[in-house]
Write a sequence for this structure.
């Protein structure tokens, strides 16, 4: 893949945010063969961005493969890491897939569920732009921190 | 399999408890071909009981198959159903397996985690007796209800 076909520009300002840095860290963590060692960060995060035509090419019904699953995990792991960084308490992500890419993603802090999302069409996991991906993560993060702030005792259990 | 080789006696008093009745209900729910229709309840629950020699026959390391997984799910589904019955709030079980039968089982009520268990050796899932299985379920149930009682507001979210 040449640089010109990437969906994320090398100078995209979002790449400098805590979220993107954590996403790259998560992707590198599961990169057992060091494939990403020489890759730029926009290339590493590129599979998370699916343009409309790219999404249209993926069948509506399908089973998610290992690669897509590792991306879904990286996304929620990154959010859990940011929650942990902000509130100082351990945040644990759990992803439970059933059939055909349906499932549930949870993040818990102590005995508190700070995120509970139904997953659908996991085989087509992706965001229109990197910025939209960060918006989604920010939204989850701020709701999670609000819940922790409201029930600090349960989060500390 | 003849009746004499079963680990659970047909007149085991535990079979009459709410827990065993719920377990049978859960097993019948996933019995797509009606295999259990003519089975006695002790025969349906028999695979949950593993005697020491039976456990010894199963390799220490192994991947859990679909059948074992359906038993693990039935067990936590039954507990979730009993929690729900007792506290009147929806209890949702989530099971997340990683490799070689390691994983995590969660039950949430609202935004409250009422059970959080690390799973190990899932391929050897089983209890020494039906009574010990019920004890384990009772323990989880009473802890869960205690947590709900302590944080009813979080459980009601």
């Amino acid at each position: 893949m040449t640089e010109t076909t990437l969906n994320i520009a090398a100078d995209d300002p979002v790449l400098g945010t805590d979220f993107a840095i954590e996403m790259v860290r998560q992707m590198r963590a599961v990169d057992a063969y060091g494939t990403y060692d020489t890759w730029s960060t926009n290339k590493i995060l590129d599979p998370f961005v699916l343009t409309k035509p790219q999404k249209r090419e993926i069948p509506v019904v399908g089973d998610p493969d290992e690669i897509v699953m590792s991306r879904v995990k990286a996304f929620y792991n990154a959010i859990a890491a940011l929650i942990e960084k902000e509130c100082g308490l351990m945040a644990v992500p759990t992803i439970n897939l059933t059939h055909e890419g349906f499932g549930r993603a949870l993040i818990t802090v102590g005995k508190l569920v700070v995120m509970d999302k139904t997953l659908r069409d996991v085989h087509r996991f992706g965001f229109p732009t990197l910025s939209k991906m960060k918006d989604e993560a920010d939204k989850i993060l701020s709701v999670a921190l609000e819940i922790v702030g409201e029930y600090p005792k349960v989060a500390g259990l």
Observations:
- Chain B has a mean pLDDT of 92.
